[in-house]
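**User:** My hope is that you can spare some time for a protein that puzzles me. As I understand it, each token names a local backbone shape. I would be glad if you read both lines and explained how they fit together. The protein I mean follows directly.
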Amino acid sequence: MEDNLAPFLSPMARKLLVLFKQYDHDFDKLLAANPQISRAQIDQVTREVMSAMELVMGKPAPAKKWRRKAKGPANAYQIKMTLCGSKPPIWRRVVVPGDLTLEQLHQVIQMAMGWQECHLHQFEIGGETYTGIDEDYTPENGELDDSQYRLCDVIDREKTKFQYEYDFGDGWDHTMVVEKIIPAAENPKSMVCLAGKGRCPPEDCGGIWGYYRLLEILEDPSHEEHKDMMEWAGGKIDPTEFDADEVSSLLSDMRR
């Protein structure tokens, strides 16, 4: 059962479940041996597991306290994401359900752009910062847990802009724009990529400046770093490569 739950759980929840098994499913023993883990984290993971179990069993997950009670199907949000500093722009246009949590929206962005979910991330929306919270990252500046907030609860207007940052080292900043909010009554097809342009840069290439430097080196056989960078990148990179249908297929398989 735990393997079936994994796709629905945050990294923190998955790690705590492993520890839980190591301590014979005794939370008191786990907490005594791991003072860095708080009771609040245990409570959050418990709620995640309960929701995940109901999803796996085909039942609706119970609404969390912060969520408004749903009144029928959710509206859909058409969002355009653009990688800051990219020239020509690297962008994607997706349609997603408005009741996605920000953590789930993070997963959508990763799939749509082509990132590998190897680094930390955060959203900046309306003056608040939302991020993934687990034992590897404890917020110190009032950041909010992005798994606890839905898109429709933090944004309710078209043309709203917000920021998404991935990998605080390379600093991949994305400008996000809610282009449309499509009423549920129109039966919008959600979890789909409508369009996009440009290949996603490789992970850990040094940010947008490092990406364009990498492309220049790969195109110049006489460059002293050409051989090493060709080996690192696995060959030449086509910066125009993108397939919206492939992204749509990935999104359609995303389990909520």
Observations:
- The first helix runs from residue 2 to 5.
- Confidence is low (pLDDT under 50) at residues 59-70.
- The chain is about 35% helix and 20% strand.
- Residues 84 and 241 are 18 Å apart (CA to CA).
